[in-house]
Amino acid sequence: MQNLDAFFLLRPDVTFLNHGSFGACPRPVFEEYQRWQLQLESQPVAFLDPARGLSGWMRDARVAMAGMLGTAPDNIVGLTNATYALNIVAQSLDLKPGDEILTTDHEYAALEKTWAYVCRNTGAVIKTVAVPLPLTDEAQFTDAILAGFTDKTRVLFLSHITSATALVFPIERAVAEARKRGIYTVIDGAHTPGHIPLNLDALDADFYAGNCHKWIMAPKGSAFLHVRPALQAMINPLVISHGWTEDAKLPGTKGVFGNTPFIDGLEMQGTRDPSAWLTVPAALQFRADHDWDKVAKACQRLAQDTAARVRAFTGLPALSSATFCAPQMVSMPVPRCDPAQLKTRLYDDYQIEIPCFDWQDHTIVRVSVQGYNTETQMDHLVTALTEILPQLSAKT
């Protein structure tokens, strides 16, 4: 596998195996980010005036991103992160007491809190279904979801790629069935863009949010929200500012700055630095320049090989078949131990940055592999685990 570590700014003394949390930005992309920031600081008034360039630059990023996502530029809006985007959706839905939000036991903790907050304010309730493990068949997942639908289900909230378990959920049939029943579909795609192929128009979910700072490798603070055109008028900004218009929900209304009310209302929310979002085209170009599909395939092989080596050592089964495992991110069950101690030992003794945590009745080490990682680093991880795990598991 070609190593591209020279393109990244990561500390050379740390074995960085946690791309999945916040990503890592390549040096040329980061330099483009700084160029935008310098342009902002050189003339802030001109830069932040939508009529003097900003609105067009924001659209340029939407156009570049939309091509990757299989949708139209006016169906997406650039935001700071997927959690923020999904909060916009969750707090825009007109939920009533007793309405059910159906979700799974694999969801991201911050979004579990988001829905708990919404339920506290609306009287809606969360209903959680367990996804059978190991996940080896699409019907396992879809049947579990469909069995959870009731006549009170108003929202289906799913991760496309899960955070804790690093599974790719086959959401297509569940989304289609929810549409037939008049159930809103809200998809957390935080780990998906740049990780697996996406065609949002074909998926036809009502709401879909994704991060660009993870697998697309744009700077932190770049993400998008996709909303089906028929539902864009129902979206309410969390912050009401210059981009909002009181006529936003009337058919045919133009936005304040010439875009749709959906875009202007969410993009133009007070003073903020939009440089991360404006750098998305450069991140996409970096991927194209370095044949990132080929790089990603090599990363997938390295991730799967590493997980197989850990399984051979621990004797513990995988959480899914390869079909439903995130290509470049694998959650590897290890013998039960204190995950905080394991994480500390891996970092302090071996300088390995990797997440370790408990999920349900599993202790998990989640490895992410990106173009800057090497086989030598994976050897280092396997060696560290073989040395530390017998010591820690003996204490439990």
Automatic annotation (TrEMBL):
<feature type="domain" description="Aminotransferase class V">
    <location>
        <begin position="56"/>
        <end position="381"/>
    </location>
</feature>
<dbReference type="Pfam" id="PF00266">
    <property type="entry name" value="Aminotran_5"/>
</dbReference>
<dbReference type="InterPro" id="IPR015422">
    <property type="entry name" value="PyrdxlP-dep_Trfase_small"/>
</dbReference>
<keyword id="KW-0032">Aminotransferase</keyword>
<dbReference type="InterPro" id="IPR015421">
    <property type="entry name" value="PyrdxlP-dep_Trfase_major"/>
</dbReference>
<protein>
    <submittedName>
        <fullName>Aminotransferase class V-fold PLP-dependent enzyme</fullName>
    </submittedName>
</protein>
<keyword id="KW-0808">Transferase</keyword>
<dbReference type="GO" id="GO:0008483">
    <property type="term" value="F:transaminase activity"/>
</dbReference>
<dbReference type="InterPro" id="IPR000192">
    <property type="entry name" value="Aminotrans_V_dom"/>
</dbReference>
<dbReference type="InterPro" id="IPR015424">
    <property type="entry name" value="PyrdxlP-dep_Trfase"/>
</dbReference>
<keyword id="KW-0663">Pyridoxal phosphate</keyword>
